[in-house]
Write a structure and sequence with these properties.
Blueprint: E1 4-7, E2 12-15, E3 23-28, H1 39-57, E4 61-66, H2 73-82, H3 86-103, H4 119-131, E5 135-137, E6 143-145, E7 169-170, E8 182-188, H5 191-196, E9 207-209, H6 211-227, E10 232-238, H7 242-257, E11 262-268, E12 271-273, E13 276-277, H8 288-293, H9 298-306, E14 314-315, H10 318-344, H11 350-367, H12 372-391, H13 397-411, H14 422-440, H15 444-456, E15 459-464, E16 467-472
Parallel strand pairs: 3-4, 3-10, 7-8, 10-11, 12-14
Antiparallel strand pairs: 1-2, 5-6, 6-8, 8-9, 12-13, 15-16
Helix pairs in contact: 1-13, 2-3, 4-6, 6-7, 9-10, 10-13, 11-12, 11-13, 14-15
Bound molecules: adenosine monophosphate and zinc ion.
């Protein structure tokens, strides 16, 4: 089996192969940093994290680009309301996004282009579209894309192009699918834009980029830089981005380059609350920091999301999250047990067989359009059967540990306490060495101070005949 993914372009599950293996270029539409991202946003980002990690597990060399939308209708409005300059308003939310990303264990993208820092590329893209006659200046001074000049407009969202409103224009970043109009590439600077510092000079008039233009320009600029390419292997986002955002990205990019913009389009379904999309607008949202402040282990959030396929809607409830927490705890206990047994066990035996069978199922599940629920079911089956085998004294734990560790590289659902961050572990080792030194020179006050310092970060220590043991509680 090889990896197959559901491509929104064809509405089919297709075998995936990158243009220039082993390199895979992946662009994921990043957060709009007008406020904190909610866990609905993070459901999409975590589905993309699973994709990214499974591509790496499958031997691909992924180049991952995630943009930060730091100028658009929403960010400007939010900055104006807060009485701040745009970058002053967005900076703390960018910082918060990175903190939330780390809390949720998302693998960092290779680059995070920011819209406000990519304006020259956007201006060049508009110029190209004007030169090619697919863009025009409206009587309001903004630049629009003429969808009638791009015959395949509507292919991604399966729009009935007979419905196109020829010549009708829309300046807003978001509009409905039943109202396909020429959309703004570049919006003429308004006093409100100037007030927050969201206006740039351009040969075709002072203004600011439209949201769709930003993603086209940033993705094309980054894949040119990293890979001298004009076509992405994968482009992903939530289902609400199919129209107009991704449809418009395709139109702008392909009209400019004459090449396919992205070969695979992947879209994650919504996180809902009682059947309604989680959204700032509806007020039914939770942020990642809310969960962190409640002491929720990020592993539980990840496991909860993996237990529903990314193309199915998921209803968020406290009970489901608590249930995932129980699963995470079970995995942690199993991991500890296998680790203990691995030290004195053989590599061959019943456990090795169970682990090999699991690995086959795990791959088959994820190869099948990232079927994480099936991969998780196989994981819990392994835990169940391997525990029974361990009860019976079966050998092979060392091999099972290797397989389990590899699966965790993808799912990453062990309890945080058992999955100590490498930086924290180094710091703990360093503190323990300092405490040993203090104790040897009979500076017990300093030794106690270091013990308290460790306790302050949740680290318990115990002096044993074989040295000081530590654990994070
Ligand atoms: P935004 O910050 O609004 O640009 O959205 C960031 C990402 O979150 C986009 O890919 C959206 O499609 C996605 N998104 C927004 N709401 C939800 C939700 N309730 N469930 C899943 N994904 C969402
Ligand atoms: Zn985008």
């Amino acid at each position: 089996m090889t990896l197959a993914l559901y491509n929104t372009l064809s509405r089919r599950v297709e075998p995936f192969a990158p243009l220039a293996p082993p390199r895979v270029t992946l662009y994921t539409c990043g957060p709009t940093v007008w406020n904190y991202a909610h866990i609905g946003n993070f459901r999409t980002f975590l589905f993309e994290d699973l994709l990214r990690r499974y591509l790496a597990y499958s031997g691909y060399d992924v180049f991952h680009i995630m943009n930060l939308t730091d100028v658009d209708d929403r960010t400007i409005k939010a900055a104006a309301t807060a009485g701040k300059r745009l970058e002053e308003h967005t900076a703390p939310f960018i910082q918060a996004f990175f903190e939330d990303r780390d809390y949720l264990r998302m693998t960092p993208a290779h680059v995070y282009p920011r819209a406000t820092q990519s304006v020259p590329a956007m201006i060049r893209l508009v110029e190209r579209l004007l030169e090619r006659g697919v863009a025009y200046k409206g009587d309001d001074g903004s630049i629009y894309f003429a969808i009638a000049k791009f015959p395949s407009y509507g292919r991604l969202s399966r729009l009935d192009t007979r419905e196109l409103k020829i010549g009708a224009r829309v300046a807003s970043d978001e509009y409905a699918k039943d109202d396909p109009r020429d959309f703004a590439l570049w919006k003429k600077a308004e006093p409100a834009d100037e007030q927050v510092g969201a206006a740039w000079d351009a040969p075709f008039g002072r203004g600011r980029p439209g949201w769709h233009l930003e993603c086209s320009a940033m993705s094309l600029e980054q894949i040119e830089k990293c890979c001298r390419a004009e076509t992405l292997d994968l482009h992903a986002g939530g289902v609400d981005l199919i129209f107009p955002h991704h449809e418009d990205e395709i139109a702008q990019s392909e009209a400019a380059t004459g090449k396919p913009f992205a070969r695979f389009w992947l879209h994650g379904e919504f996180l809902n609350v009682r059947g309604t999309k989680m959204s700032k607008r509806f007020g039914n949202f939770l942020t990642a920091r809310d969960l962190r402040d409640q002491g929720v282990d990020a592993a539980a959030v990840r496991l909860l999301f993996w237990q529903t396929h990314y193309r199915k809607a998921l209803d968020f409830t406290d009970e489901a999250l608590a249930g995932a927490g129980v699963g995470v705890k079970r995995l942690g206990e199993f991991y500890e047990r296998v680790k203990r047994e691995a030290g004195n066990g053989k590599r061959e035996g019943r456990l090795a067989e169970l682990a090999a069978a699991f690995e086959t199922d795990f791959r088959a599940a994820l190869d099948d359009d990232l079927n994480a629920p099936r991969a998780c079911a196989a994981l819990f089956e392994l835990v169940h059967e391997a525990n029974a085998a361990l009860d019976a004294g079966a050998p092979g734990a060392a091999a099972a540990l290797g397989v389990f560790d590899r699966a965790m590289q993808v799912l990453d659902v062990l309890p945080t306490a058992k999955r100590v961050d490498a930086g924290l572990a180094r710091w703990i080792e360093d503190r323990i060495a300092a405490r040993d030194k203090a104790r040897k020179s009979k500076d017990f006050k300093e030794a106690d101070r270091i013990r308290a310092e460790l306790a302050g970060r949740g680290v318990e220590i115990e002096d044993t005949p074989s040295g000081t043991q530590w654990r994070v509680v």
